[in-house]
Design goal:
Blueprint (H helix, E strand, L loop, with lengths): L8 E10 L2 E10 L2 E7 L2 E8 L4 H11 L9 E6 L12 E6 L7 H8 L9 H11 L9 E2 H13 L2 H6 L3 E7 L4 E7 L2 H14 L8 E5 L5 H10 L3 E4 L5 H10 L2 E7 L2 E6 L4 E2 L1
Parallel strand pairs: 3-6, 7-14, 10-11, 11-12
Antiparallel strand pairs: 1-2, 1-13, 3-4, 5-6, 8-9, 8-10, 12-13
Helix pairs in contact: 3-8, 6-7, 7-8
Length: 275
């Protein structure tokens, strides 16, 4: 049965570990889908979001981008029912503005160019990644006990977090457990980019045989960055999104989340984790 388009989560299979014991069940995973925002039929941005309250998201976008400052300027906000890809039907929203509203299209496009190319359905987003990146073929195996230790190893290297308590971190580990590099940033995506940039500068890409550990959740963007860098495994303290899991499955990447204490959940390619 197709999920409710406004349902914020999906039920997906997982493998999870308690100590050295392996289990299988299903888990509620937060949904992540792209939303294309149009103004009067003109696409202006694609944002990644959890479905639900899309009209409020579009209105907030229009306000924060300086397009409108008065709700009366907006005649309507609604989902488009006619789209090129049926899978995108619930992922396109159109705002109709009053004729008197003047939109600075050049400024708006300059601000949003970088986020406008990821497609308007999850499948399209993943397809674009897989056009650029080969599926990961990596026979790396890591022990589950070693994965349990990663959050503490990452935290121990977060010097700025110790002082401020306000930063995300990403760390690159080899399968034997050594931390090669840990970087911090207010944005989790920026922290991952710094790690990949460190590897690129040293001629280490692709990063076969490595594990990327992140301090927060795993979104589509983080998974895409790992795939592009050839990293076969992501471990995260918090939850994955549905689109991150879909991309990891297509790309052959192992995605382990909720790595806390003596538990963790594995959503894709669990054979790389062994007792």
């Amino acid at each position: 049965m197709e999920p409710d388009p406004d349902d914020p989560h999906l039920q997906l299979p997982r493998v999870w570990w308690q100590g050295q014991t392996r289990h299988e069940d299903v888990d509620a995973v937060v949904r992540e889908e792209p939303l294309e925002i149009r103004i009067g039929g003109t696409p202006v941005a694609v944002v990644m979001r959890t479905p639900g309250h899309d009209h409020e998201l579009a209105l907030g976008f229009l306000a924060t981008e300086g397009v409108v400052d008065d709700p009366a300027s907006v005649m309507s906000v609604r989902h488009c029912t006619v789209v090129d890809d049926p899978a995108a039907e619930n992922n396109v929203v159109q705002a109709t503005l009053r004729p008197s509203v003047q939109v600075d299209w050049a400024r708006l496009r300059r601000n949003l160019y970088a986020s406008s190319s990821c497609g308007i359905c999850g499948k399209a987003s993943i397809d674009q990644v897989m056009v650029r990146c080969e599926p990961i073929d990596d026979d790396t195996r890591v022990g589950v006990q070693w994965l349990h230790a990663l959050p503490d190893r990452l935290r121990a290297a977060q010097a700025v977090f110790t002082r401020t308590g306000g930063l995300h971190a990403a760390g690159l580990f080899v399968a034997e457990g050594e931390a090669l590099v840990v970087r911090e940033d207010v944005g989790r995506h920026n922290a991952v980019d710094k790690v990949v940039g460190w590897a690129l500068e040293r001629g280490r890409l692709p990063l076969s045989g490595h594990v990327l550990m992140v301090s927060g959740r795993v979104s589509y963007e983080i998974t895409q960055k790992a795939v592009a860098a050839g990293i076969p495994m992501i471990a995260a303290v918090s939850a994955p999104s549905s689109l991150a899991i879909d991309l990891a499955a297509r790309a052959g990447l192992t995605l382990a989340a909720f790595v806390r204490g003596d538990r963790l959940s594995v959503y894709t390619r669990p054979e790389r984790i062994v007792a």
